Fold this protein.
Amino acid sequence: AESLKLRATWGQAFLAATLPELFGPVNTYTFFRFLDPLNPIENGGPFASIFPTTVLGGNPDLQPQTSETTTLGFEYRPENMPGLYLSLTWSETNFEDLIGSLSSAFGWPPVYAFENWQQFPDQIRRDADGVLTYVSMQSVNLSARTSEAVDLDVR
């Protein structure tokens, strides 16, 4: 028998920060070496080695990461073509307040963040000469992201 099924779902979710992300001990170091793309080496390699003040540890100001998902789809079995099955599903998930750090968001070293440091004033600082002086590797609520997917099944 011919059948058409329509599907729709909507949901919300959250991901709380872990205890170490919230309350881990905060430590300051000056021995972490970073390659700074805005300060090339005069002779030799592409970037200068910089040893800025680096902060690692928990962040009690972290908010939960949240998401909202919408899914729409259908399943169809045509009567005049026995055995044929068609299914199409579309979904979209909007994430807010993503929890991460410079390295989790941009890789290691976080070259994009170092090149666009003005966008991250709480995580990266430079002196008047543009030399990297401060890097926070603490977890923060980074931003938002949208993920879309389409799934097609034909049998």
Q: What stands out?
A: The longest strand covers residues 3-15. The mean pLDDT is 89. The chain has three helices and twelve strands.
